[in-house]
Structure formats: C-alpha cells, structure tokens
Structures
1.
Amino acid sequence: RFKIETTTLKSKFFFIKEGKDNRVEMVTTEAEPLLIVKTGKGQLVRNAKFKVNNLVEVMGWKAAGAKLTEYSKTIEMEWEKKEVTDNPQPELF
C-alpha cells in the first residue's frame, strides 16, 4: 500500500531498504485485496484472512511498511481470487 510520489521518469527508485532479510513477499494492484495467510504444520494449521485496505493505510513509498504477522518458515500466503465473469457490468451506484 505505497504511493509513488515522483514524476521523474527513467530513474530507479528503491523502496525496500537494503538488508539481509528485507524483501517483498506479496504484490497486487487490486483496490480491495484480500490476503489469505496459512500458518503452522499438520493439524496445527490456521487460516486467517486480512482485508489489507482496512488494516494498512496508503503510505509514501519511503515509509517502512506494515507488519501483518510474525514471519515463520511455515507461513504460506496467497491473494483470494475474485470470480471473473464473461461479461462484466460496471457498477453505476
């Protein structure tokens, strides 16, 4: 949930601070993304859904970001897929 705040073209801007464990885990361009997070192993698996737009405000691209959960090697994440219709109708109201 970052907003790019420059009009400079043909220049690289790094929005992740350099560091051993710094990285991007998930990316989407959806306005209202729903993130599914699975933690644990075997019978201890827990599922959680995060409405990202309700949890994290849009920040400037230099912001540190937001932590949704503690990192663990047993975490799996995916975006919830929206149903695609053959003939989408735009909403009027």
2.
Amino acid sequence: MVTGARLDRLKRLVRPLVPAGLRRAVRIALTPAHERYAQADLERVKAVTAAVWRGAAHRSAKYVPGYWDEVDRVERRTRASRRSEWLAALPPFAAAESALEIGCASGRNLYVLQERYPRMRLGGIDISPEAVAHAQSRVRGEFLVGDLYESAAMLAGRTVDIIFTMGVLIHLHPGALPGLLAEMRRHARRHLVLCEQLSGTNEVVKGPAWWRPSRKVTGDYIQWSPDLPAMLRRLGLPCEVSDVPGVLQSNGARHLVVVPLR
C-alpha cells in the first residue's frame, strides 16, 4: 500500500523528469471541469481570461503580427483588414474627431482609421504589452496596457467621441459586461460601436466540457456570444443591430451594434 508520504516522495522524484506542459495537461485531465472553475464563478473566469490574453504573445510568436495582417500592403489584404476598412467607413466615424478602441490588439483597426481620417485623435487599450507596443509603433495616439475587467480605472480621465470594440466583449464574462458598457457610455460623447457576436442567451461558444459538452473544449480559452442589446436596454441605451457583411464575418465579429449617445 502506498502511503501519502511515499506518494509525495514519488512525486518529487518524478516531477523533474516530466515537462511542465505535460504535468499541467495531466492535472487538467484528471480534475473535473466543475472543480477547475464554474461558469458562475466570475472571479475565477476573470483570472483565467486575463492570464490567457496577457500571455498570448509569449505562447505564440504569431499573436501580435497575426492581428496586424499587413494592412498597409495592398497586395496582402485579408478578410480581417477589409473588415477594418468596412468598420472605418461606418457613418459614426465620419463625424468623429476622436475614437478609442477597447481591446485594440496590435492596432489594425486604429491604423485604418488613421489612414482614412489623419486628423482623428486615436487611442487604444489592450491587456497585452507586446500588442500595445506594436500598435504604438504604427499608430499616432495614446495607448494603455489595461485589464478590461478594471474598466473604471482603465477609462478614468478619458473622454472621446466614439468608443468601439471588435471581437473583444465575447471574451469577457457576461456578468461583467453591464459595468463595462456603463463605463463606456460614461466616457463616450457620440457613439458606442460594437462589432461582436451576439446571442439572446449569453451562449457559451467555447470553454470547458462541463459548460458545453457539445462544443469544442479549449482548456482555459473561454468565449461567449453575449446578449448585448438586452444589457444596453437595461442601461437605458437604445441600439441599432445589424449583421456584418457575410464576406467579412469571422468568429467573434458577426454583428454590429451601434449605440447613439446624442
């Protein structure tokens, strides 16, 4: 019979021989998903989400340039860069003097806005320092490394005509979104423009098997399709909802929500 003390000694002997990634994979596989984190556990989900995106550039060398997509080279335009051009051409931006992107990644959308409206004052916030550094190298504007779950501190002292997102709110727990939307409303003068992916049920699209056994299990990567229109209505904010053009749609960017604030 293996006692607890002997098992601990065995673990100490074996541990240096097993790669850290394999140890983590085995630990996750042997731990029921509902014990790792529960869907209703906002604080745990916040920690998991922040860790995933804060460390994305370290896990993949393609993370930062992958969001850039060579938008300044015509011969290499992609669906993502064309979607950025479509976003910049929306009517709210034509009348704006300033815009702030929440979850700007490496700045692709802001770069396109800069090219279209050279005098527009731009800014961006992202949790990845590497992505923000890339954005700063290509876009004139004010950037901040910040956690979207800390919206009050993140937006403090900032007021712009438009605050916008693209495929970002899908990564935040729906329980935290009303607070973020309220802060966005507080700091935007004219419009909120949200290019996201919606459902009427705050559907979990990706996450642990315990949440959605029929969907792809992706470890610590979690994604929702939030009911943004309902959240906005509860905040007293009417909105206009439409589809992103089919040829430009992608995961997380299928619907357009425009909130007029004037």
